[in-house]
Amino acid sequence: MPGYEGYLNERVAALPEILRDNGYHTLMSGKWHLGLTPERSPQSRGFERSFALLPACSNHYGWQPDVEKQGQLPTFLEMSVVALHVEDDHYVKDLPEDWYSSNGYGDRMLQYLTDWKKSADDRPFFAYLPFSAPHWPLQAPKEYVDHYKGVYDEGPEVLRQRRLANLVKLGMIEPNTKPHPVVADEVTGWEEMTEQERKLSCRAMEAYSGMVECMDFNIGRVLDYLTSINELDSTYIMFMSDNGAEGAAYEAYPMVQGPLMEHLGKHYNNHLSNIGAYDSFVWYGPRWAQAATAPSRLYKAYTTEGGVRVPCIARFPTLHHSTQTPSAFATVMDIAPTILDMAGISHPAPTYRGRPIVSMRGKSMLPWLTGRAEHIHEQDFIHGWELCGRGAIRKGPWKAVFIPKPKGPEKWQLYDLSVDPGETNDLADAQAERLEELLGHWETYVTECGVVPLQPELGTYVVATEEQMPENAWMEYEYW
Q1: Dmax (CA) of the chain
Q2: What DSSP character marks residue 45?
Q3: pTM of the model
Q4: Cα three-residue angle 25-26-28, rounded to 5 degrees
Q5: Which of 369, 480, 387 is nearest to 90 (CA)?
Q6: How far apart are CA 321 and CA 84, in angstroms?
Q7: Which residues of 55-72 are buried (b: 16+ CB within 10 A; e: fewer)?
Q8: How confident is the model at residue 317 (pLDDT cuts 50, 70, 90)?
Q9: Neighbours of 123 (CB within 10 A)
């Protein structure tokens, strides 16, 4: 199905393709997750140098128990454990013995930048450094994990309240903001846990924090190198998360819990002292995730604010500086137009290299970033989201959300985000006409973007035939 292939399709011109064709040296090191075969690799989509993890995630140490090497593993783990990498146009058969993902991606990016500098290449560079951390399995070098020993011993709710108070102190949310209640009925509550269960839960959070610190260390290495070659202040830098915190509790999912938990119990060591090591395999679940996304509702894979609102940090000397926290709405689709605008490059639509392509849906943030505009988008800008049978449509501050059971009521809800960022006060009945207007915009979004609704409330279901997309086509991959 168009848009559901699981890889970067040919109906778009990728940002590195456009930049490469317009005189940029393009580099990538890290997670790709946009295709698993060489013809769908980073090099095929514009990166002149690339070292990439092809699937969504893997063991961060590149380790597998022997049984997995023989192909005997639960379906859920088929593309979640193999550290399948490609460098430029060839698969990487063996990772270094001391491999750890964040350090490895940092090393390779530094190598590429050093090679660029030594070659006296006078082209500007575009570098993409997408870490696979802190995606599960939660693993990090012990020296990083131990930095957080005891930090989370009071549990996720205490952490959540502490972070909410700090957001108010920093001026990032209003003091009267009402956070959405924690939704985590599928897992045991903190008060009901045994002492050992609490220790295991805290250690998972410590491992997560160790992953973030190691990632931060490697970002610092790259920035230090740019400083050393006098490029930092002429380089636009953007750091962001790709989605809300991961809150899945796989141990509670009927489709995966039996085979998955049995496999992990047999072949991994998740004892307290070993969590975070190469042969451990844990996640931290919905309560810690909602300590991260508060005051927003839910987390990754949901179209609520907790799933789609993420932190983003940008640095460039000429950017506008304000002492106030801005509230301008922006989407990930605005990044490519912004970078092209900075580079003075036009998007090639409607054709690229002889094939038809679509135009970008985003808008350049540059006028706003430089203080020349008050907003990025017009005040009544309309934007939609759809994922896994969950939908949302927004116009200005008004947002309609559809979340199926058990995490939602399985009907459209309506929120005014200007006064209710936590999505706590459903105005669907009180503002029925406004909701109806938004649902009309939703139908337009479905048509324009080719959404395949998985719930009747999301629109007319379109059957995906095998001719359109064979089952598991998104998981096509090869080995050497």
Answers
A1: 65
A2: G
A3: 0.94
A4: 145
A5: 480
A6: 42
A7: bebbbbbbbbbeebeeee
A8: confident
A9: 15
What is the rounded distance in angstroms from the CA atom of residue 241 to the CA atom of residue 309? 9
Query: Would you list the DSSP string of 211-253?
Result: HHHHHHHHHHHHHHHHHHTT-GGG--EEEE-SSS-----GGG-
pLDDT tens column, 74-90:
888 877 888 999 999 99
Name residue 58's beta-bridge partners: none
**How high is the mean pLDDT of the chain?**
92
User: What's 135's DSSP letter?
Assistant: S
Q: Return d(Cα 212, Cα 219) in angstroms, integer.
A: 11
- The closest of 240, 231, 234 to 113, measured between CA atoms, is 231
pLDDT at 467: 45
Distance between CA 344 and CA 338 in Å, rounded?
10
**246-274 pLDDT, tens digit each:** 999 998 887 777 888 999 999 999 999 99
Residue with tokens 């009071």: 154
Question: Which amino acid type is present at position 432?
Answer: A
Nearest of 236, 1, 24, 250 to residue 122 by alpha carbon: 24
Phi first, then psi, for residue 367 (nearest 5°) are -60, -40
Cβ contacts of 295 within 8 Å, gap of 6 or more:
164, 167, 173, 177, 178, 179, 180, 421, 422
The pLDDT value recorded for residue 480 is: 39
User: Which strand (E) or helix (H) includes residue 103?
Assistant: helix 101-118
- What is the distance between the alpha carbons of residues 141 and 147, in angstroms, rounded to a whole number? 11
Q: Alpha-carbon distance 389 to 410, whole Å?
A: 10
Q: Give 278's pLDDT tier (boundaries 50, 70, 90).
A: very high
- Does pLDDT of 70 surpass 80? no
Summarize the confidence of residues 183-211 as an average pLDDT.
97
**Burial class (CB within 10 angstroms; exposed 0-12, middle 13-18, buried 19+) of 303:** buried
